[in-house]
Amino acid sequence: MQGLLRCARADLATWASFTTCSTSEWASRTSIPCAALYAEHCISTDSHTAFSPSNNLGLVCTPEGEFFFVVGKDGVDKATWKLEPGVQPTCGGGSMVAERNGKTVAELLETPKAKRARLRDAEIIALRLYSGPMYAVYNPILRPGEDAAGSASTKNLYPTTIQLIVSGIFKMCRVAEAPDEFCVYRGLSGMALLKKSFDADQQGFAGGVEASFMPTTLDEQVTSRAHCFATEFHVYQ
To answer: Are 114 and 133 part of one and the same domain?
Structure first.
């Protein structure tokens, strides 16, 4: 019980440090990427709001729980807002599902591609969050008229997280190698492209614009597994 009280006081103190600071102090504090990531996932209006991603409806998540899965519950020093070395991901009930790994941020920073792209720790955190269930919260924010996953509040727009995802993707694009035959696959469920999306324009282009991030895969079978809960889905090449 005393341990729980200490944790509650620590979180309360962190929340107070964000909510009582002046505008200039807040701007200074949230200019530290890890501090902003923590605020957006752990002390915001939807931090404890449960949701399930469409590709795994049996998985119940919260933004705070997913942040802890990526960096660990004690993975950020709240005095310096730097990552604590050696802290392992905190896996909540059922969070370790098939094809998901528990690599630490430190391990990912040491990968050849991360080094070549010169990714920062905050960009690694944001990219890893997006590659997990949190995509179901971020994407609807970027798609006009679409509600966030579950009952997640749209008041939390995750501006720092989304900017770090964009930054990380741009950096990775500079060092990424194009797939063989430039072919990737994308699955869609619960929707279909309009007929005019397949009609080429005067420049010979056809398709549409995805307002949010659009993950694809080199393996067509992955799209089937990702949409296994859907009654109908389409695979685009």
So the answer is: yes
Same domain, 91 and 171: yes
Contact partners, residue 185, CB within 8 Å, separation at least 6: 216, 217, 218, 219, 220, 222, 223, 235, 236, 237
Q: Is the pTM of this model over 0.70?
A: yes
Residue 138 in contact with residue 165, Cβ under 8 Å?
A: yes
| Residue 153 in tokens | 């509040």
Residue 120 in any domain: the answer is: yes
| C-alpha to C-alpha distance for 179 and 156, rounded to whole angstroms | 36
* Strand pairing report for 76-77 and 186-189: unpaired
Contact (CB, 8 A) for 216 and 186: yes
* Backbone phi and psi for residue 190, each to the nearest 5 degrees, phi listed first: 75, 10
pLDDT in tens, 101-125: 778 999 999 999 999 999 999 999 9
Domain, as residue range, for 111:
32-175
| Residue 151 pLDDT > 60 | no
Q: What are the two backbone dihedrals, phi and then psi, of residue 233, each rounded to the nearest 5 degrees? A: -150, 160
Q: What's the structural domain count of the chain? A: 2
Longest dimension (CA), the chain: 70
Tell me the two tokens of residue 198: 């397949």
DSSP 148: P
Q: Could you tell me if 54 and 93 lie in one domain?
A: yes
Q: What is the pLDDT of residues 5-29, one digit of tens each?
A: 333 344 444 444 444 444 334 444 4
Clarify whether residues 117 and 197 are in a common domain: no
